[in-house]
Design a protein that fits this description.
Elements lengths: L2 E6 L6 H6 L2 E4 L2 E4 L2 E4 L6 H9 L6 E3 L3 H11 L5 E6 L7 H11 L4 E6 L4 H16 L4 H12 L3 E5 L4 H5 L5 H10 L2 E7 L2 E8 L2 H18 L3 E7 L3 H14 L3 E7 L2 H7 L4 E7 L2
Organism: Lysinibacillus antri
GO molecular function: lipid binding
Protein name: DegV family protein
């Protein structure tokens, strides 16, 4: 059985990665003052942050229309028997549910949907693994079993400069945003039960990043090999410097650099930085 792998734009895989593994991507959109743009297709990340910086209107995000999924699934049915769809957390977007709905509307191909319960680079970990296994001839059941195993070690923590972005976008409670603003803390945020929550509240960004590193160190001591990603919101120099420092400290961890694109950047804000990791399986 031939299996196609589909994800959405919030995995922020490079065009080279998508081409290498033959991964199909459905874009989410960001709505700005001058119109709506499909991220990774009609607007670059740097263009987005430049526009937002000079905008008086807070951007909004939109999930893909169900019709886009239906059209893609029908196209894939010409060459594949099954599709594995891996999407950002259903707790912060309806994209996953849209893929489920579309899969029920197409008879020519079997669609399996996987809720990553997360987003960005850690979502991409699942996508790349699924594509590698599909290329090697693994069944959908085998792939899903491995993805569920990966969930046990997949971690992501991020620090934002301004909680107001998450609060305005409805991805964090007003109470949590208020506490962060009043105390001038830099909370470490994470995904828990599919939604974004404050994991710990730290007084400064420097201390917050140090605490995230401590959490990585704990897992680096537990697992033989780890894949990790520094993720930045238009602060690449800061991200690269942190990645360099981490690489020198943890030789058993393979680091790379990624970014918070327009859709996730809408909710986190420019200057946010995070770290994700997963045990290599």
């Amino acid at each position: 059985m031939s299996i196609a792998v589909v994800t959405d734009s919030t995995a922020y895989l490079t065009p080279e990665e998508r081409a290498r593994y033959n991964i199909r991507m459905i874009p989410l959109s960001v709505n700005l003052e001058d119109g709506s743009y499909e991220e990774e297709v009609e607007i670059t990340t740097s263009e987005f942050y430049n526009k937002v910086r000079n905008s008086k209107q807070f951007p909004k995000t939109t999930q893909p229309p169900v019709g886009k999924f239906v059209a893609l699934f029908e196209e894939l049915a010409k060459d594949y028997d099954e599709v594995i769809c891996i999407h950002l957390s259903s707790g912060i977007s309806g994209t996953y549910q849209g893929a489920v709905q579309a899969g029920q509307m197409v008879d020519a191909i079997t669609v399996h949907t996987f809720d990553s319960e997360i987003s960005c680079a850690p979502q991409g970990y699942y996508v790349i693994k699924a594509a590698e296994m599909a290329e090697q001839g693994a069944s959908a059941e085998e792939i899903f079993s491995t993805l569920e195993e990966m969930k046990q070690s997949n971690q992501a923590f991020f620090v934002v400069d301004d909680l107001a972005h998450l609060q305005r976008g409805g991805r964090l409670s007003a109470a949590a945003a208020l506490v962060g603003g009043l105390l001038q803390v830099k909370p470490i945020l994470c995904f828990e039960n599919k939604v974004i929550v404050p994991a710990e509240k730290i007084r400064t960004k420097k201390k917050a990043l140090r605490r995230v590193e401590e959490l990585l160190a704990k897992d680096a001591a537990q697992y033989d090999q780890i894949q990790a990603t520094v993720i930045h919101a238009n602060c690449e120099e800061e991200g690269r410097e942190w990645m360099k420092q981490l690489s020198e400290t943890y030789p058993n961890v393979e680091f790379d650099l990624s970014y918070f694109g327009p859709v996730i950047g809408t909710h986190l804000g420019e200057g946010s930085i995070g770290l994700s990791w997963v045990e290599k399986i």
